[in-house]
Design goal:
This protein is of the alpha/beta class. The protein folds into two domains: 59 residues, no CATH class; 169 residues, 3-Layer(aba) Sandwich (Rossmann fold). It is 52% helix and 10% strand. It contains 13 helices and five strands. Strands 2-3-4-1-5 form a five-stranded parallel sheet. Helix 10 links the parallel strand 3 and strand 4. Helix 4 crosses helix 7 and helix 9 runs parallel beside helix 10. The radius of gyration is 24 Å and the shape is elongated.
Length: 269
């Protein structure tokens, strides 16, 4: 019987077990100090359930692996610039926002990443496009894909500054390599010649090699109209769309549903 099943089956009350100072010191030297928070309860469980030594160790190490996996995922999500509140479990299904749920279920499987396919999330302002993109980014991080999210205007501004300090090629190489690149709010502002060139290079270099998610409140022809170089823009969009799913999101403003209500406590209080 597994430790979890034994725990569920037990009915005897557990008594707290004191952990010796020597054991605490040894665990800290082995970088297992975080286990000390739950070790007394785990020792008590092992005693009341008469767990064999190997099952007790399995339970203990499973706790540590889970903790480290969560810590690693949180760190990589921060490095990817993902919003910590925009995860799949936090989506409000009661909203009237509408999109293809069958396609969304397929996207959540992340098979499109294995096939180096793209995704365009399109729809009016405020319907949750950024939320959905972030949610897929978090899912990808947990599967240990490399992810980077950046708002389009900030990305192109950063790349413009990189030209001035001769780090542009290095920055572009990093963007070429990331397994999932999320560009949020593309074409919210016009793209100049350098910005269109950067967009073209990103799409061409990543085409059929890595996945890109684009969110925009404009459709393809409107996105193209915002680019200074129409030829490069058309070439980039053709490549992007030829290997892309398209998720159209419509309905009421999802963002307005997230506004704090009277009497609602802020999370940072």
């Amino acid at each position: 019987m597994s430790p979890n099943r034994r725990a569920a089956a037990g009915s005897a009350p557990m008594q707290r077990v004191e952990v010796s100072a020597e054991l605490k010191a040894l665990m800290r030297r082995l970088k297992l100090g975080q286990l000390l928070d739950t070790l007394p309860e785990r020792l008590a469980l092992a005693r009341t359930q008469h767990l064999p030594h190997h099952e007790f160790l399995e339970m203990l190490f499973a706790d540590e692996v889970t903790r480290r996996d969560h810590h690693s995922a949180d760190r990589r999500a921060r490095e990817a610039n993902l919003d910590p509140t925009m995860v799949l479990d936090a989506w409000d299904d009661s909203t009237t926002v509408a999109f293809d749920r069958a396609l969304w279920a397929e996207l959540c499987s992340l098979r499109f990443l294995d096939q180096a396919l793209n995704l365009m999330i399109l729809g009016p302002v405020g319907v949750g496009k950024t939320f959905l993109a972030n949610a897929l980014g978090h899912a990808a991080v947990r599967r240990r894909y490399s992810v980077h999210l950046e708002r389009a205007d900030k990305l192109f501004k950063r790349l413009r500054a990189a030209r001035l300090d001769n780090s542009h090629e290095e920055q572009m190489r990093k963007l070429h390599r990331v397994q999932l690149l999320i560009i949020d709010d593309l074409a919210l502002h016009p793209l100049g010649v350098d910005q269109t060139n950067d967009f073209y290079e990103l799409i061409v270099e990543r085409h059929r090699e890595c996945s890109t998610i684009i969110t925009s409140n404009r459709e393809g022809p409107e996105i193209l109209s915002m680019m200074a170089d129409q030829l490069l823009g058309q070439s980039a969009l053709d490549r992007l769309q030829s290997a892309a799913f398209e998720l159209v999101v419509e309905g009421e403003s999802y963002r307005q549903r997230q506004r704090p209500q009277p009497g609602q406590q802020r999370h940072d209080e």
